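Quick board copy: two proteins, each given as sequence then tokens.
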Amino acid sequence: MALDPYRNDLIVGIVGAGAMGRGIAQVACVSGCRVILHDANLDTSARALDFTSEMLDRAAVKGRLSNAEADAARDRINVADGIDSLAPCHVVFEAIIEDLALKQAVFQDLEKIVADDTVIATNTSSLTVASIAAVCKMPERVAGCHFFNPVPLMDLVEVAGSESTAPAVISALMELGRRFGRQPVRVADVSGFLVNQIGRGYVIEAAHLADAGIAGFADIDRIMRDAAGFPMGPFELMDLTGLDVTHPATERIFEGTGRDPRFRPSPLLQQRMEDGLLGRKAGAGFYQYQDGSVVTGPEPPAPNYDGRSVWVDSDRLTDLVENLGGSLDKDAKPGNESIILVSPLGGTAAKTISDGGLDPARSVAIDTLFGLSGRRTLMPTPAASRDIIAAVHGLLASDGVPVTVITDSPGFIAPRIAAMIVNLGCAAAEAGTAELGDIDRAVTMGLGYPRGPLAFGDALGPDRVLKVLAAVHEQTGDSRYQPTQWLVDRVKYGVSLTTPD
């Protein structure tokens, strides 16, 4: 394939004028390419053209483009009367819904229309290039070019090819991504590519936690925002994306990876999708919405600390209790009336309390993995006294840091979700899904995480992440928590998760 991504007269075709198609059209026309936009619904194409024109005007107002540049870009977009109008294109991007049969039909139609040296790329986010190219006469010119929504604001593009894709096609699409102002990352042709695979660790694990009744949607979101530093909670994110997008993609990735248990969908998401609780666009999802804004009440006020003494199992908790003005029990074993605070790493509160021979009625676990300055998570057992829980809650909230109380479970909330993300990043490194240096870069760019999965694991401590996974795996018996060999080996040798084999 002899595609010159920098030729001045490059013609870009786009099939599908939804959010992704119109976004690709915008960055392509701004880069100087002529764009031919086709959608089976001409009204959709017309709306896409109006929307893109408005975005170009807005870019001019904000100074990102001059008025002349915006006008010139607008003039380079044309709406096709039919798919036959894409015949002169040098490259065509397919951006329709995630339906394999429909995508295959589009590619077969395109092959009848465009020249033999035209590159045809799919914007799929959960299917493989190979599965789409399987019906093509010239699979060597078929590749994946996965942009992120909203395209004009998201710099990342994942570029993938099947075993049949010509290397020159991959190189040309990488360069075309740069011409469009994106940062391309070469990824393997696996279901979900890189970013969407790792992103499952955030939303799927949160759904499994909620499905098990360990914490509510809002509490999980608060913990992941305030304690772990994510810009949005997982349920806020799914409401924004739409459950009819997130859950089917999860199912496709699960099936496309040979039913890898790490991608096992949550029954909770299936049920809520069937109930029409799709998120913001439906007015109801994990939250209720009114005029596009979430309707939620404030957290209930914290109870008061009653002044009783507190015995702790770690120096970190000693400093916390003393800084909060609590009465610290400094004996080797807790006094008969003292509150007991423990800090398990991966284990349940019940197991930690039992192993230590502690009184379950007076014992509460606290998550310390992410520090104690953003939000504090308490985990009592069913045997814990309500008065004890209230007293601990009151003490730990006395400096204004919010506190969330969850049901006893292995791994708390933030450590368990973070460990899944790190483990998926390690799996990607192990499988060679992308270059080591690109894994963290792509995830932070594509998902907005505070760190990429490998950097996240290094910051928390690979040995701590391994302990969380191993403990949850042992106590649940669920194979989705099986630590990767990549993680195990790097803990064994005491090196960074970014250390190559």
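And the next:
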Amino acid sequence: MIKPKPTAPVAAATQAPRKRQSRQDLLPAARETIFNAAAQVVGEVGYERASIKRITQAAGIAEGTFYLYFESRQSLFDQLLPHFGSDMLAFVARRIAGARDIFDMEERGFRAFFLFLKDNRWFFRVLTEAEVAAPLAYAEHFRLLAEGYRRALSRGIERGEISDYDSEEIETVAYVLMAARHYLHLRYLRDAPSGADLPEKVVQTYLKLLRGGFR
């Protein structure tokens, strides 16, 4: 007696073939992979030594593939800070949402900035060396940062939380506060072990200075 050949399961017979992703479908993920690799490489060796070869090796792609997404190494550098700078600004914005007043907002924003740097240690070098490696991107990043800060501080004036400063002086205050973050990072975190937090005493001293200066 001849046994019939077993039939394939219905599910297997009717399963639709998996759709092959087009290059356009892969574009956002591929660009993000290159951005992430470039950030890590620049964070480790700086812009000057961040060659396309180093970046593509870190990204796990062929050098030829790089040029499908960026015209040149400089094109990538010109987009690198804006790409991650917007991530940093969005991260801080989420942390300060719902702040009670200007002091609560500033404490939340201050802590959020250093938390972002803690989780993305490469960012500080990407930011600071961009002044030479990607000056237009650097200038635009600080313009956006200062403008957002100025608007927040101006609301503090309108609500009576900040006294003795007029609208023209607020831009100067914004740059002073941004500079404080920069130098506190240099002093307490740049050479600290991975995962280190800004000392709480530093945070409280900064806030003490702020409260005394705004009132």
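Board note added afterward: The two ends are 100 Å apart (CA to CA).
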